[in-house]
Amino acid sequence: MKPNKKKDFALEAIHKQFEITGIDPSVLESDPESWFNNNTMTQTQHESWKDWFIVECRKRFRTTKKMAEKEFAWFDLAYGLRIIDEGTPEN
Q1: Is 75 in contact with 53 (CB distance < 8 Å)?
Q2: What is the DSSP string of 47-81?
Q3: pTM listed for this prediction
């Protein structure tokens, strides 16, 4: 097993979040302290990211759906972007 398997997956999940929301991934290097405070996602984008995360987590770590959902909840709490309403302009 690759020693950084979890770290690699976490970074890929953050990049996938950026891909879904249309945010340039270079923001991680340019603004490492507050990239998650300065960007937002819609509920639809969040659901898309959640679905991707659960499928990938189950595939890579051979876990149950319930466990993958729990992992997503913790990951989203730590690294997820704020969710805004579909019609709300971004700040």
Answers
A1: yes
A2: HHHHHHHHHHHHHHH---HHHHHHHHHHHHHHHPP
A3: 0.88
